[in-house]
Design brief:
Order of helices and strands: EHEHEHEHEHEEEEHEHHEE
Distance between the termini: 54 Å
CATH superfamily of the largest domain: Response regulator
Largest sheet: 5 strands, parallel
Strand order of the largest sheet: 2-1-3-4-5
Number of strands: 12
Shape: elongated
CATH topology of the largest domain: Rossmann fold
Radius of gyration: 20 Å
Amino acid sequence: MAQVPEAPATPAPLSVLVVEDDEGIAASLGRGLAREGYAVRHAATGTEALRTRPVPDVVLLDLGLPDLDGVEVCRRLRRESDAAIIVVTARGEEADRVAALDEGADDYLVKPFGLAELLARLRAVLRRTRPTAAELLVHGPLTLDPRTHRVAVHGREIALTPKEFDILHCLAVDPGRVVTRQEILERAWDAHWYGPTKVLDVHMAALRRKLAVDGLIETVYGRGFRLADPATLTGTDHPAGPTP
């Protein structure tokens, strides 16, 4: 008897953890997200959020939590996972935005907001953090995995901060193309970044030190940055060494 081919498995819905101590707001967000097909869970405290397993795909994080400051929760979530983090809070001061974004938040939304805007921002964040083509990006001695956020040079894995990875990813997705400073700031920090661009120089210098490949990231003065042609780099034919 011929076997009947199995139907393709239905992909699991993306999971969203709503970290919010206001039960009414949490319930409203949960209903709206569930209608859009997301699998929603709720944590009323920062401690509960940090203990949630399995790790969700997306975290909607309020900053005004009863036990831990939301920025600290954001920092620990980013250190322990690659979940997308969208801050949803009544705290709209620039200092709060900068602190959360610097600690790894992918977006920042100030209450009150509409569900349509939240969903649009969620989709945009997922496009950035969960690319549909999760293939390895290879450029000369550099290997970058968008799915796991791992980076290796000459086969040796190096540890990057989330911002350093985002900067490198901006350059690696289209090597050779000049990426402007503003484009990097908007993609790695915030779509409405109006702060000083010096912050990019600091992260770029740290990234270059960690990559330790002279000339890999070129500065195109007055325009931006790009990855250099591998043929122009010295030492790109080194054999991959063992991971230390």
